């Protein structure tokens, strides 16, 4: 309801992860479920049949939905590598993996740009290879702490992969685009 009435922001984190994967030579598509339906998502994965599916989770309220989608995706594509990242996933990583009951291979804590390409490569080598990566949490445990991005200007979001760009808004600012000038939170919540 919130993203229908007051605020719907473009998924910059997903766009950055997509840009990193594409830069590493992967065929990438982005489907934002703020503006597309579950039926659209399942149609895309059935037609495309990707090797990997990644979800960005920035709102705690979306975690049950992502777990349900992961379970159904795993049913339809048993061999797919399914991973989750994003703000809310970063601080609930172990719980997400546990509740997914094998449907989610790992959760990536922290920033996505520099870990996306190594993550996709490590996925081919199994859980131990994944867990060796910074910020990656699997059912078997957690790897080294996540690393910060060295240069926020080194990679631009893959905005060209995002359909329905005019569907993002903030209150009466319609349409709206997002920019990022820094990262992190100045408060000690």
Question: Main attributes?
Answer:
single chain; 189 residues; alpha/beta; Rossmann fold; five-stranded mixed β-sheet; two-stranded antiparallel ribbon; 8 helices
* Distance, first to last CA: 26 Å
What form results from the Cα inertia axes?
Answer: globular
Range of helix content:
25-40%
The helix tally amounts to 8
* Order of H and E elements: HEHHEHEHHEHHEEE
Supply the helix-strand structural class.
Answer: alpha/beta
The biggest sheet amounts to: 5 strands, mixed
Unreliable residue stretches: none
The total tally of domains equals: 1
Instruction: Using the 3D structure, state the CATH architecture.
Output: 3-Layer(aba) Sandwich
How much is the radius of gyration in Å? 16 Å
Provide the CATH top-level class.
Answer: Alpha Beta
Mean pLDDT: 92
The CATH superfamily is identified as: Response regulator
- Give the tally of β-strands: 7
Q: The CATH topology, please?
A: Rossmann fold
Beta-strand proportion: 5-15%
Strand order, main sheet: write it out: 2-3-4-5-6
Summarize the structure in words.
The protein has one domain (2-170): Rossmann fold, CATH 3.40.50. The chain is built from 8 helices and 7 strands, in the order αβααβαβααβααβββ. It is globular and about 45 Å long. A 5-stranded mixed beta sheet has the order 2-3-4-5-6. The chain has a two-stranded antiparallel ribbon with strand order 1-7. Helices cover 34% and strands 12% of the residues. The protein is an alpha/beta fold. The chain has helices at 2-5, 12-23, 38-48, 63-76, 87-90, 93-100, 116-122, 127-131, and strands at 7-8, 52-56, 81-85, 106-108, 136-138, 141-142, 169-170.
């Amino acid at each position: 309801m919130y993203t229908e009435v007051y605020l719907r922001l473009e998924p910059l984190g997903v766009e950055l992860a997509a840009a990193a994967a594409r830069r590493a030579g992967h065929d990438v598509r982005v489907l934002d479920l703020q503006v597309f339906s579950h039926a659209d998502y399942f149609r895309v994965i059935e037609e495309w049949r990707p090797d990997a599916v990644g979800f960005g989770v920035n709102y705690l309220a979306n975690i049950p939905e992502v777990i349900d989608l992961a379970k159904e995706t795993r049913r339809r594509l048993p061999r797919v590598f399914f991973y989750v990242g994003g703000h809310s996933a970063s601080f609930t990583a172990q719980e997400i993996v546990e509740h997914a009951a094998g449907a989610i291979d790992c959760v990536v804590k922290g920033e996505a740009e520099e870990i996306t390409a190594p993550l996709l490569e490590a996925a081919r080598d199994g859980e131990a290879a994944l867990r060796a990566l910074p910020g990656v949490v699997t059912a078997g445990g957690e790897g080294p702490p996540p690393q910060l991005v060295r240069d926020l200007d080194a990679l631009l979001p893959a905005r060209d992969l995002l359909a329905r760009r005019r569907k993002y808004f903030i209150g009466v600012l319609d349409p709206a685009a997002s920019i990022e000038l820094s990262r992190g939170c100045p408060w000690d919540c």
